[in-house]
Amino acid sequence: MSRPIRAVTVDFWGTLVFEGPRADDRYRERRLADFATILGGAGFRVTSAELARGYEQSGRELTWVWSENRDVPVVRHVASVLEGAIPGLSARVSAATLDALVEAYGAPALLVPPAADTGARAGLEALTARGLRLAVVSNTMRTPGRAMRRILEGHGLLAAFQHLTFSDEVGVRKPAPEIFRLTLAALGVPVEEAVHVGDDSRLDVEGARNAGLRAVQVVAAGREAGPPEPDVVIRGLGELPAAIATLEARA
């Protein structure tokens, strides 16, 4: 028999906001333009071609790291771009310049933030009112957790969560069980009393199951869930309170 639900963890990309994680590739040109401006202001002459080469090299490095279900801090993204552009450059920039580059790396997603699920706020507040503890568990891709926090805050969603776990900050990515277990340890809730909500069959449903959580999958209209089959399918986060009630009734 299933145990009662005390915590719900929620994915970011494709669940809280209506974009997939790969969508932040469109920020490439803005990042590179801002890098050129910052580096030029600091006295470094770096061409657009060199920065583009660095960005591609960093992408290859990140793809390899991510394939192992690991992650690195955003400062490592930036250093990789600089090294790919001009070997040794990352060691020559000042701490202040590096900080400016890190800020510029995450900033494009804040200029035109991805749209949020319109039912998310009411759905999350309903769960909080019932005493459930909520957390975000998300892979970050090139947009770092520091920017994703600000996106949530801009949509009025940040306050609903007691904890936020972003892969670039903890060094592990879904579907690895560790990212779910780290989050639930922070909430003080065992995996048997938690549910994960996300849109991706492998990262969210399979990942949650392997960690010992039940899984709710957000599936857009016209699409199908799984495999693997989630415990409950919803079309948006406005349906989440009813989904949790369904799981509790089964328990």
Mean pLDDT across all residues, rounded? 94
Q: What strand order characterises the main sheet?
A: 3-2-1-4-5-6
According to DSSP, the number of beta strands is 6
Tally of contiguous helical segments: 12
The CATH homologous superfamily of the largest domain is called HAD superfamily/HAD-like
Provide the β-strand percentage band: 5-15%
Shape: elongated
Distance between the termini: 6 Å
Q: What's the Cα radius of gyration? A: 19 Å
Which second-level CATH architecture of the largest domain applies? 3-Layer(aba) Sandwich
Q: Structural class, from secondary structure content? A: alpha/beta
CATH topology of the largest domain: Rossmann fold
> Briefly, what CATH class of the largest domain?
Alpha Beta
Question: How many separate structural domains?
Answer: 2
Order of helices and strands: EHHHHHHHEHEHHEHEEH
Largest sheet: 6 strands, parallel
Helix share of residues? 40-55%
Structural notes for this entry:
- There is one protein chain.
- The protein has twelve helices and six strands.
- With 251 residues, it is an alpha/beta fold.
- It has two domains: 7-19 and 114-250, 3-Layer(aba) Sandwich (Rossmann fold); 23-111.
- Strands 3-2-1-4-5-6 form a six-stranded parallel β-sheet, sandwiched between helices.
- Helix 8 (145-154) links the parallel strand 2 (133-138) and strand 3.
